[in-house]
Amino acid sequence: NSLVLLHSLQGGVRVELVLLSIPEDPKTSAGFDEKELQKEKTGEKAERIEDNTSPDDPVKEAKEHFPPPNPQLLLTDAVFETVTIGSLPSLHFLNETVFEKTISEREDTEKILSSSKEQKSDLISGVYEGGLKVWECTYDLLEQIENNGETFRDKAVLDLGCGAGLLGILALKRGARQVHFQDYNSTVIEQLTVPNVILNCQEDEEGEKNDIQGRDGCEKEVEEIGNPPPKKRATDMPQHTLLRRCFFFSGNWRTFLPLVLTKEPQPKFDIIFTSETIYNTAYYPALHEALQKLLASNGLVYLATKSHYFGVGGGLHLFETFVKEKGVFSLDHLWDGEEGLQRHVVVLRFKKYV
Ligand SMILES: C[S@@+](CC[C@H](N)C(=O)[O-])C[C@H]1O[C@@H](n2cnc3c(N)ncnc32)[C@H](O)[C@@H]1O
Prior knowledge:
Blueprint: E1 4-10, E2 13-19, H1 26-29, H2 34-41, E3 63-65, E4 79-85, E5 91-94, H3 96-101, H4 112-118, H5 136-148, E6 156-160, H6 166-173, E7 178-183, H7 186-206, H8 210-213, E8 221-224, E9 246-250, H9 253-261, E10 269-275, H10 284-294, E11 295-306, H11 316-326, E12 329-336, E13 343-350
Parallel strand pairs: 6-7, 6-10, 7-9, 10-11
Antiparallel strand pairs: 1-2, 1-8, 2-4, 3-9, 4-5, 11-13, 12-13
C-alpha cells in the first residue's frame, strides 16, 4: 500500500489528490489518469450532455437515505481529492476518474453508472442528472463564499441537487446546525454524497490535516510516501458526530418537497445552495416551488450556473425570466464570469425582504 499526493494550483483553487490503500500500480490497475483530472479542473474538458431539448419533468419518487451503521466502511480503498480555496476548510471528495473506472464493483440499482459510461454522457435527462461529477460552477460558488465571508454557524442549509455535496459539506464544516443533501439519483447519494460527507467528518474529528496543507503545491506533483499514517486510514475512524447533523434525500424536486415537509419540525432553510441545476426549463416550476416553500423568510438562495446549457437549452437568462414572472424572489448577480462559456453566481431572496 502507498499514499500518493497530487496537488496543483489554478487561480485561487488548490486541488490535491490522495489515494488510500491502492494496489502496486495505480495507473494501470485503477485506471487513474492525472491529465484527465487536470483538464477537468482547468475546464478544458466540456461536459458531455445528451441532446434532449424537450424533456418533461420526470417522476422519480423521493426517498430518505440513512448512512449505514459503520459508515467508514464506505471509504475502504477510497481514492479522493482535496480542494482548498483561500481560507475555506479543505474539502475532500472521491475522485471521479477512479469512480468511473471502478463502476463494475459498485452497487448501481439505477444503472446510472453504466448508462452514463455507455452513452458517454454526463447527463441523461430523467435518468441520470449529472451528480457523479463536480461541476465547475460549484468552484465558482465556493470562491464567492470565500470572498463574501458567509458564515454558517447555527444555520440550516440545503444543498439542492448536491451531487458530490461540496457546498453542503463546507457549511457543515463551518458550523451549520443541520445540512440537508438532495440529489435526483439514489446512487449518487449512496455512492458519492454520503461517502464524501464521511470523508470530511473524519478530518474534523482529528483537526485540520496540516501535513497536506503545509505543502507548497504550485506545481503538480506526485509523491510516494510509503504506508499511510494511521490517521489517514479511513476505516479506522470513530463514529462521526457531524454526520448526525446531516439528512440525505434522493428523488425529483416535485416529490422531494412533500417528503421533506413531513419532517418534524418542518424544515426552513437559512441558506439554499443550488449549483448547475437550471439547465432544463421543464424543471423550473418544481425547482421554484421547492425554493419558495423551503427557504426561511429572510433566507438566501445561492445559485451558480452557466449562461446557457447546450443540448438541454436552459440557462440563466431563461431562469431569470421565469423568476421575474413568478414575482416571488428578487435576483441579484453576485459574480459574472467573463471567460469562455459564461458562468454566474446569483442570489435569490424573498421580495418582501429586499
Ligand atoms: C449537473 S448536476 C450538478 C451537481 C452539483 N450541484 C455540482 O455542481 O457539481 C445537477 C444536479 O441537479 C439535480 N437535479 C436536476 N434536475 C432535478 C430534478 N428535476 N429533480 C431533482 N433533482 C434534480 C441532480 O440531482 C443533479 O445532481
